[in-house]
Amino acid sequence: MQVARSATRxxxxxxLAGFDVFRPDAAAHGEQLKALCIExxxxxxxxxxxxxxxxxxxxxxARWICDANLALIRAADAVMANxxxxxxxxxxxxxxxxxxxxxxxxxxxxxxxRSDGRPLVARAAVRMDAETAFCxxxxxVEDFGLPLNLMLACTVELVIGDAAGCLDAISEALGTAPR
Length: 179
Known about the structure:
By secondary structure, the chain is α/β, with parallel strands linked by helices. The chain is 39% helix and 16% strand.
């Protein structure tokens, strides 16, 4: 007699990192992401799932959110990160980049997605001097032909597309894709 997979093992938990938490509809969007996870045999862990306690002052609330997100990453089997540009050309959200690094340091697999696969230099450079590209603030823009800073591009499994496409890649890799 064959036992259903859900009865024999829990679905992999995926921490859903990204600047999506700053959307006006962040809670609804988080529910949509978690529904996409369920369709693929995964359990999504959205950063705001812990529910911030009422009455905390700003700094205590910030520490609570940080600690809660770190705990969710520790509990996760893997991470999916929205690595689209945020608040400026060429750079993902700093908090998301930290979460990716933290997960990598814990030995967790990390998938990232972006809608634009062009090299970083094509998106962030505003001027060229000889062979060197510079951003709007005058700093050199690295040119390794990668769509992200090399520390992200070389450590995540990058999907060019959207969250659903990234979750498809995760479920395929983790063996939870519907058959």
